[in-house]
Amino acid sequence: MKITSIIFDLDDVIVNSSPLHFEAYERALADFGLPVVEIPAELCRSIYGMRIKEIMHVLVNHFKMDVDVEALTRHRNDYFLKLVKKGVKPMPGLAAFIKNVEKWKMKRAVASSGVTEYVHEVLKQLKINKFFDVVVTGDNVHNPKPAPDCFLLAAKKIDALPSECAVIEDATKGIEAAKAAGMLAIGVKNSVVDSGQDMSRADIVVHRLDEITLEMLEDKR
To answer: Candidates 1.10.150, 1.10.60, 1.10.10, 3.30.160; correct CATH number of 18-85?
Structure first.
């Protein structure tokens, strides 16, 4: 079946956000009493692509902290949004790829694990909010990635069948969610963010968004 729709993840697909996320985690944990904050690399890889509220539970359990997780999460999100509002950078190839998607006349959506305020702030800053027909955030679904909920909801909102959708993801959990949704999965394994993610289940793997071609999408269907 022909690909008619592109669904974008946000973090480290559209915007280079990992450094801001991890600064916010470490600052919040320190503010809540953790004397030395260093998130191990393996733990970083395992939480990559998860929703913030689930990540905060994982971190609290890992560091054996006796804290109010909801209060810690609010503190972390407040700090993170302050960092975001200072300015964010698009991922390599974004502008060129957006032009291509417009030229291909495809429907487009964002399906992110991020909170709604953050997702809309990024799209506004990068001046691409009008490019997207639909925005789905982590606040809009019950089950986070690797469950397919966010991608299925995005497809429903843009009136596309799952088999007509290509998902662009940089996280293992996101690729698993795309495959569970019955969608084409495009993994972006770029040099800006070395997150050690497993791309083996992706149908297509690129290093930059502007490496994705219409021929690639047509060849995979």
So the answer is: 1.10.150
